[in-house]
Amino acid sequence: MKAKYMTGLAVTVLLTVGILGACSKEETKGKIEDGEVTEMSTSLSDGGELMEQNIDLKDDGSFKEIVTGKNDPKVKLEVTYKTDYKDDSWDDVQLEIDKVKVVEVDKYTDENNEDFKGLVSMHYTLENKGGDDIHLKPNEAALVLEDGTHIKAEHFADYWDDVFTKDKKKDGFIYFKFDKANEIDSIKEMNLKFEGRHKDSDKDKVDHEYVVNLPLTPAS
């Protein structure tokens, strides 16, 4: 598989800076308007930055597609990873992933009335240079913590269009949900698989599989 990785980390925490424990930090207080602090930033020794705010999920452009009706939870903690992943191992197809965002929310209720505390948004671009339409769908995903713990993430299948038209480029977001979100600031990697097939192939056939082990580490 031909794949390239380059990662950097921009961290935004929307709750409290107290979770940082032993990280060295320097706080800069924000403005006070109408008796409330509108912004407070904390610089970390690893180069990341934490910011205390109060926003709804709908106000984050990376998740707007999965915010429906009253299902608009408050964002408590947010981590954004800038990545540079490219894979051209499938003939005439190039897959790119340039951004991963993980958020902890107070509660997100899905279409099956199941509650989740964590959400992932992954921005991708796929260019199909071939002469046939293809189908591609995420199969499984997991977040890997610094201590080696794997947290399974479920794909939002209802928000995924798996058809990629021939000789076209398409970009968008892939969404995942998970139920353990109290350690998302210690995520070091995301592992996921995609299964692809040509338009005329049997629906159960896999013509190509992407195995993506995407490192998510702080920028030096």
From TrEMBL:
Superkingdom of this protein's organism: Bacteria
This protein's name: DUF4352 domain-containing protein
Gene source species: Vagococcus allomyrinae
Lineage per the UniProt record: Bacteria, Bacillati, Bacillota, Bacilli, Lactobacillales
